[in-house]
Every structure is written in C-alpha cells, then in structure tokens.
Amino acid sequence: MDIGRTGCSALATTSLNELHLQYGVYINEDGAGAFANGLARNATLNVLEIIHSSEISDIAWQSIFTAFLTCKVKSLILDFNGLNDATVQSLSNALLHNTTLKSLSLQDDSITNAGWVILSTSLSGIMLK
C-alpha cells in the first residue's frame, strides 16, 4: 500500500495515541518528509508501529527518524523492515535527543554487531524495557 505525501501528512497530523502501519506499507521519500514533519508536531502519539514494510528506502527512514528529535513517542516498534546499519545510524542520532522513549523493538531486521554498538551508545542514558 503506497500512502503517498497527502496520506502521510494526514496520518501524522491527526491526534492519535497509537499509529500502526503494517504489512507492505510503502512511504516514498516525499511522503516520508511529510510524515516526519507531522510526527514532529504530534503531541499525543505514544506508540508508533511500522512493521513488515521493507519497501521503505533508507532515505525515507532517515527522514522519518528526524521526527524523533522532538516526537514524544514512548513505544517504537520497527520489526521486519530490513533496517540496516545505515538506517540504525540515523535512528541512533535522533534518539540521542529523545527523552520519552521507553520501549524499542527491532525484531528481525538486518542490523550487524556494528549497528547494535552504534545504537547502544545513543540508548545508554535511556531506560528501555
């Protein structure tokens, strides 16, 4: 399912407590920027789940992760997306400034030991479960 720029903007700017995007969601680079802008302004989102969406490009993920500089999400579930060390580096950079994250799931992604080391340094001050 291709959400597109308009759909991404609408999803991200709606006052939601939880947002679950599952199985084959495709967000292109243009849509990812709109999605990230909306997430960054969303004050009510506690849970963001994007799973089984391996068609989202590294560039789109990087755009989405910029939202976590200000997004107040508490639970982030990014399982089965094929995230790699480059995308984890972007996530790690954004999480350095996040003070609300309590739960992170990266099940069955393509992260190597080097990627986990990068991620662990950004999470050192965050108490996750």
Question: Could you characterize what this model shows?
Answer:
The chain has 129 residues and is an alpha/beta fold. The protein has a single domain, classed as Ribonuclease Inhibitor (Leucine-rich repeat, LRR (right-handed beta-alpha superhelix), Alpha-Beta Horseshoe), CATH 3.80.10. 41% of the residues lie in helices and 12% in strands. The chain has 5 helices and 4 strands. The chain has helices at residues 4-13, 29-41, 58-66, 85-95, 113-122, and strands at 18-22, 47-51, 75-77, 103-105. The chain has a 4-stranded parallel sheet, with no helix packed on it. Helix 3 (58-66) links the parallel strand 2 and strand 3. The N and C termini lie far apart (31 Å). The model has no long low-confidence stretch (mean pLDDT 82).
Task: Set out the fold topology.
Blueprint (H helix, E strand, L loop, with lengths): L3 H10 L4 E5 L6 H13 L5 E5 L6 H9 L8 E3 L7 H11 L7 E3 L7 H10 L7
Parallel strand pairs: 1-2, 2-3, 3-4
Helix pairs in contact: 1-2, 2-3, 3-4, 4-5
Task: List the domain count as a whole number.
Answer: 1
The CATH topology corresponds to Leucine-rich repeat, LRR (right-handed beta-alpha superhelix)
Poorly predicted ranges? none
Helix and strand succession? HEHEHEHEH
Distance between the amino and carboxyl termini? 31 Å
> What's the story with the biggest beta sheet?
4 strands, parallel
Report the radius of gyration as a whole number of Å: 13 Å
> Strand arrangement, largest sheet?
1-2-3-4
Helix content class:
40-55%
